[in-house]
Amino acid sequence: MMPRRRRDGAGRCGARRRTAGGTGAFGERGSVTAELAVALPAVVAVVALAAGALSCAAVQVRLQDGAADAARLVARGDVDRAGAAVSVAVSGASHSVAESGDAVCVTAEATAAFGPVSIPLSARSCALAGGL
């Protein structure tokens, strides 16, 4: 003879089974809302950091382009326009020129800021002196 099943929905341990609506005796009502409230700030923080990293990468690329343009200008003898080339690429950037043998190198520096965080960036580019 097989044991009879209980009609009150309790299993072997006496715990009630979960109903199809998800509002069983476990007290799980609103748990998705609570989990979302905990996870949402973390997701927002990750998205903000990713946007900041992308912004810093864009400034780095523009700074490298400005340093390359400035190095070519200095190599051709246009030292005065080299600073303008770096400043046009990234506003507030500074540059320094160094010569070593036949090469002229320009180092450009700027600060990328997103929110309360600021990151110093640097780019260096060299060109042959006397180039066209």
Give the topology, please.
Elements: H1 31-75, H2 79-89, E1 94-100, E2 103-114, E3 117-128
Antiparallel strand pairs: 1-2, 2-3
Kindly describe this structure.
It is a single chain. This protein is of the alpha+beta class and 132 residues long. It has one domain. The chain is 42% helix and 23% strand. It is built from 2 helices and 3 strands, in the order H-H-E-E-E. A 3-stranded antiparallel beta sheet has the order 1-2-3. The protein is rod-shaped. It starts with 30 loop residues before the first helix and ends with a strand. 20% of the residues are buried. The model has no long low-confidence stretch (mean pLDDT 83).
Number of domains: 1
What is the straight-line distance between the termini? 101 Å
**Main beta sheet strand tally, sense and closure:** 3 strands, antiparallel
Count of helical segments?
Answer: 2
Low-confidence stretches: none
**Global morphology:** rod-shaped
CA-based gyration radius = 32 Å
Q: What descriptive keywords fit this protein?
A:
single chain; 132 residues; alpha+beta; three-stranded antiparallel sheet; 42% helix; rod-shaped
Give a quick rundown of the structure.
By secondary structure, this protein is α+β, with helices and mostly antiparallel strands. 42% of the residues lie in helices and 23% in strands. It has helices at residues 31-75, 79-89; strands at 94-100, 103-114, 117-128.
